[in-house]
Amino acid sequence: MIVQFTKQQAWDFLVIGAGVIGVSIARELRRRYASRVLVIEKESSSGRHASGRNSGVLHAGVYYKAGTLKARMCVEGNRRMREYCRLKGIPANDYGKVIVARSAAELPALRDLYARAQTNGVHAILLDGQGLREVEPCAKTVEQALQVKDTAVVNPQRVMEALVADAVQEGVEFRFSCLYQGRDGNEAAKTSQGRVAYGHLVNCAGLFADQVAHGFGVGSCYRILPFRGQFYRLRPGSQVQVRGNIYPVPDLHNPFLGVHFTHTPEGEVTVGPSALPLLGREQYRGFAGANAQDGLAMIRYLIRLIGGNRDHFRSIAWKEIAKLSHSGFYREAEGLCVGLRKDDLLPGKEPGIRAQLVNIRTAELSNDFV
To answer: Is residue 113 part of a domain?
Structure first.
């Protein structure tokens, strides 16, 4: 439903951002309170950034500490999203994934992931080399690998289309090409299309969520730093055949999961992403989108992060720099599977940008839940 603002109108809830989080919260508010809910979005349609520019992997909950809110929400969210896609006829590759060890030094972390999976209620089993070959014949590991059966892959753009259609049918109102410009008193917002009065405001502004929060005096010690995820795609006809997903054992001290192989429901295999620090929050190509404010902030915090080397950030930075070249990216991907050639990696889909939260007081990268 497209709405026009008038001076008399006031919404019970104003949601900033029509990504997957914003639309899902708007639907729940409408269902729970039978209230007037308005979603404003600065783009001309929903899911134009992180919600539509990701690998589409539905994580199962294996990475998160047992008993945490994030672990519980991931496990339940995986179940609900798989069911939602089934009901909506959205194709999914539900073959699962394997997590492989590239050296013996990664085996303790692999077994830690298995323990977390068991505690969190995730269907996962440890495989030996023969078991891995039966599940993912082209994957390679040292001694053991972890099979996570609950992982699935969907098309995120198809999910966004379905969510918005459901929201409109349920009575949620949308205003696209409508940029939030700040507060107008205690119960109204300034937008590029006029003043919007509201009872409650919900901040789902993605890459700009910190700026919205700071306008309300919230989260002043946090800032979002943008990291671009670049993807390649596996050449059709490559001898590397991927059935589900092949992931490395991650460094559990930082939020990046590393380059991985993902077999999409459409039959394409994507390889990535990288995690390149950016000079602008929407710097998708080259220097387009870079700006002095974001650029200086990124440089300042990178210096602090590298200097302090918290959570092994220095080694992460060097790995990401190496992946800027095709050869460097290939070396990272080649450690996960047998038979990969350099010419197997072709230019991939549009990159996405991760909204990475950093604590500006301690210069530490924060996980998604604070």
So the answer is: no
Burial label for 169, CB within 10 Å (0-12, 13-18, 19+), is exposed
pLDDT at 189 over 50: yes
Total domains, the chain: 1
**Helix spans in 202-253 (H):** 209-214
Say what angle helices 20-33 and 156-169 make with each other, to 10 degrees.
Answer: 30
Report d(CA 106, CA 108) in Å as an integer.
6
Confidence of residue 300 (pLDDT cuts 50, 70, 90): confident
**Paired tokens of 235:** 């050449």
At 241-257, the pLDDT tens digits run 999 999 999 987 777 88
- What pTM, to 2 d.p., does this model score? 0.91
Residue 208 lies in a domain: yes
Compute the distance between CA of residue 337 and CA of residue 135 in angstroms, rounded to an integer: 13
The string over 304-341, giving b where at least 16 C-beta atoms fall within 10 Å of a residue's C-beta and e elsewhere, is: bbeeeebbebeebbebbeebeeeeebbebbbbbbeebe
